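S.,

Sequence below, as promised.
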Amino acid sequence: MRTRRTIRTLVGCFLLLAAGALAPAAHASPPSSPRSSPLSAGPSPALPSSVAAAAADGGGGGAADGIPPLTDDRGRVLTLRGWNVEDKTHRGEAALSAITEKHFRDLRAKGFNLARLLVFWDDLEPRRGQYSAAYLRKIDRILDWADKHRVQVLIDAHQDVFGPAFDHRGIPEWATRTDGLPFTPHPDDWFAEYFEPAVQRAFTHLYGDADLRRAQARMWRVLADHVKDHPAVLGYDLINEPMGEMREGEDLPTAARRIEAEQLTAMYNRLADAVRTVDDDAWLFVEPTPIVGEGVPTGLGRIEDPKVVYAPHFYNAAMEAGADYDPSAGWIESYEAAVTAYPKEQRIPIVVGEWGPLNNSLPNMSRFYREALTSLNRYSSGWAGYVWCYGGGYCAVDEQGSFRTNKEQTAAPYARAVAGRVDIDAYDPGSGAYRLRYRASVRPGATEISLPPSPAGWRIAVDGPAWTSTGAVAAGRAGEVRVHAWPGAWVTVTVTPRTPR
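The prediction came back faster than expected:
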């Protein structure tokens, strides 16, 4: 199987852009703590000035001004932190076999609460009108593992370079129409295959042909109807990284905005209607084209549904090509400005569905992770890194399950659910201190704060009419604090790592 992204030179990136081809992210799969006291309460410590500054800035967690937060059915404000989980290698009877219970046990053990699960239409409906009961059972088993370990699942209808007709995964061959246009593989840069005439035309037919529209909607009805009652299911990502056909004379941003405005908006509304015939509850996640990664605001229009989440991806062309992070380029700032415009306008939450560089150990990557996480946590309701696997490349952890270089920064304290209105949600990566201030809801419910493994455990301080309840959590393991507050009260929770003895 191919690696997720072959190294492309920066010159190649600019040549592709100049030729009207897209060069942002592309993604395929890569294939002991000291003994000490457990999590415990203690006196309120002094809050580092950097945490106070982040709080004043709105940073460290929760949605930005003008962007509503994600919420659960009890009205609690949610924060999602997790990783993509995938098996792109196996098909047919072996489909999804690379995903095991270990993935979800380890995710939870590191403090994460979200898995973006990649599923493929070509596996679900290998022949038109014939849905695989075996594939649905495999999805059920994965959802059971997730629920057992308290990990919520976003089900992603994934495609890469359209599907099997082009030696990738996603839309079935029977739903692939090319009008006889040519396709030439690019083994050293498979993302460039999106700009082959046959692939571009296949997207045009998917969006425009009435029978393919019906087939895609029917696929989502079958899938959503099957999983709708599973407690692990958070929502549905309706299609991964949608692309389209460029017109002669169009530059890339113009083409992307037209495709989003004229084709993707209509598709998302059709699929939303289809899902709602069987599931009124789940959140619907909609993505722009990947060009948003270059700081280009989306052209998506309104999706007429009350539970829509904007779900862009966060990749940089130069870094995907193997370059180190360049803090002076202003990419993170331009990306944040681009991706926050649409959810502010539409008043919908934002969750970033994929992010993370391939070469995570380059000299500036520690700074990249700090700055990227600060940005993501400032405006989004959460994110899913790419990808939870055991090895090299994009994998979050190595074969022994230890974080790979710099990726340990993704594991930090956060409030997975807040029973009230959030005022301050701030984390300081330097000290490891976390602070949450909120006004408790009048509705019953507990605020839940997730804590990653810490060598000596955590010190928890609560100010206000509230009390905490925790399970027995050993040092070196993940834990959770539940805060129960008097309705309408202001509560401040401060979390700091204990010092090993």
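Residues 181 and 198 are 5 Å apart (CA to CA).

Coffee later?
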